[in-house]
Design goal:
single chain; 310 residues; globular; 35% helix; eight-stranded mixed β-sheet
């Protein structure tokens, strides 16, 4: 496996793409290309969660796909090792992370992988995106905007260069027009407020802008297929259902799973990503094999002719 951390912008240390590129072998694909998945961790636009980075990449690698973890523009990422946000940061730091800058990060990652596709044996028709929580908002918005001037004119490319094959969205925010869930924990409430402020930046707060940053209000018939999952215990379950309804209205293929129990941010829901027992949930962990079968419909590997011998 080729593992490298790559700076996507020469003048920034925080926006990186970590590669988990599977080695080629004549015993397996023998030079044929594999699909790939770009992973956007969550973290409330304050940091990028390690729990939703490498453990997720390992799951997709085990399925036979190359994996890439994108650390996109977030508020606190330059402060390595800090979990809770520093609320005293300058406005400029927030603006760097505001909509649509994180979409530009994902588009840059998509084009970078395409640029290196021959070297890494990537099938450019089979590049999926996968996001968790805030990363789910990034990925669902990117899927909705990939063919619109916001991205095509920014990158000066045809929409097909930016289009993901499919999107996997885990407990992501998709509709900012829905009433906000009441949060009792004051630290978590402050974190969510900072996340909202970071996404909004210096945009005027209005109903129109709330729709602009709501993938459930932006999807159309050109949006790629999506696999969605969340838990009913987590307030973002309603967000997931809102996006599923929007995809149904647009006649976009989708699959949705809302598990009854489970806290927010479960990642793999196994010990591979857990930091405490509450982050292990065997029922929720079923999302991984369910997503695998979903991906196989669209990104199945193309094997060489049958080999004789071992």
């Amino acid at each position: 496996m080729i593992c490298n951390k790559i700076k996507l912008y020469p003048d920034r240390e925080d926006v990186t793409l970590t590669t988990y590129v599977l080695d080629d072998s004549p015993e397996m694909l023998g030079g044929k290309n594999r699909g790939a998945v770009i992973i956007c961790p969550g973290g409330a636009f304050v940091y990028c969660s390690d729990r939703e980075g490498e453990p997720i990449a390992m799951e997709f690698a085990a399925m036979g796909y190359h994996a890439f973890v994108l650390r996109y523009s977030v508020y606190n990422e330059n402060k390595e090792g800090e979990f809770l946000p520093d609320f005293s940061g300058p406005l400029e730091q927030k603006l760097q992370c505001a909509f649509p800058n994180f979409l530009y990060d994902l588009g840059t990652a998509m084009l970078f992988i395409r640029e290196h596709a021959e070297e890494w044996h990537v099938d450019t028709d089979k590049i999926a995106i996968c996001g968790f929580s805030a990363g789910g908002q990034v990925c669902s918005l990117y899927a909705a905007y990939h063919d619109r001037p916001l991205l095509t004119e920014y990158f000066h490319v045809d929409a097909k260069m930016l289009r993901p094959a499919t999107a996997i969205i885990a407990y992501g925010v998709s509709d900012n027009t829905l009433p906000a869930e009441k949060i009792e924990d004051p630290v978590l409430a402050a974190l969510m407020k900072l996340a909202e402020d970071t996404v909004v930046g210096d945009h005027e707060r209005s109903d129109e802008f709330a729709r602009e940053i709501s993938s459930a209000k932006c999807v159309n018939e050109h949006t790629p297929p999506m696999f969605l999952w969340a838990t009913a215990q987590d307030g973002n379950g309603k967000q997931t259902l809102a996006l599923a309804n929007a995809l149904a209205d647009a006649k976009v293929p989708y699959e949705v799973h809302v598990f009854e129990e489970g806290q927010h941010g479960l990642s793999t829901a196994t010990q591979a990503s857990a930091g405490c027992p509450e982050q292990i949930n065997a029922r929720v962990a079923q999302w991984v094999p369910l997503a695998e079968s979903w991906l196989e419909k669209r990104m199945a590997l193309e094997f060489p002719e049958t080999k004789i011998g071992f």
